[in-house]
Amino acid sequence: IALYQPLTLLDLVVYHNPTKDINRISEIKCSQPYHHIHSDMQKTAVAIFLAEMLYKCIKDEGDIEDLFNFIAHSIVFFDNQEQNYQNFHLMFLLKLSKYLGVGVELSDPAFHSLGVQEVNAIKSFIAEPYDHWVPLSNQSRRKILDLIIRFYKSHIDSLKEINSIKILKEVL
To answer: Which of 29, 75, 118, 123: disulfide with 114, CB 3.0–4.6 Å?
Structure first.
């Protein structure tokens, strides 16, 4: 059961049968064991939230190698980061939007209610690598998260209710 934790990267050998809805898994192993995500309560909450967002946003099948590589590298970075990771989910969602074909633009009406500090933070989150730290208050972080979710909901039809947001806000 440890293999099926949120965002665990797995190597699978799957027998695909195009005539059936369910495929058979013959081999499974963890390709990248995590060190902190499943033992740190804050990182676990972020992982659960991001897993739900990914599940509800990614529906296409086909050639998604770039998307997979982005997600895998991001999650491995998150696991290895020992401090200043409170903004990771914000950066991840802003960067993910490009891969989903909806790229965040600050001119979008969803972001008009932001103050200067939040706008500058979003610009940094989009342009800078994950290890770039932007100090934010919890209030600013929540405001940005709410606006990002509103943006996602307006651009991705399959995104309705996000159940894990309450847990994330409580833990962070």
So the answer is: 118
Question: Would you say the pTM of this structure is higher than 0.85?
Answer: yes
DSSP state of 3: G
- Buried b vs exposed e over 58-72: b needs ≥16 C-beta within 10 Å? beeeeeeeebeebbe
H or E element at residue 88? helix 88-99
Q: How far is CA 84 from each of CA 68, 96, 125, rounded to the nearest angstrom?
A: 24, 20, 13
| Closest to 144 in 3D by CA, of 110, 170, 171 | 110
Strands 24-30 and 10-15: antiparallel
| Cα–Cα distance, 20 to 96 (Å, whole number) | 31
Decide: helix, strand or coil at residue 119.
Answer: helix
Q: What is the pLDDT of residues 81-127, one digit of tens each?
A: 999 999 999 999 999 999 988 888 888 777 778 888 898 999 999 99
CA atoms within 13 A on the CB side of 137: 6
| CB neighbours of residue 36 within 10 Å | 15
In this structure, are residues 159 and 56 in contact, taking their beta carbons and an 8 Å threshold? Answer: yes
Is 142:114 a contact under the CB 8 Å cutoff?
no
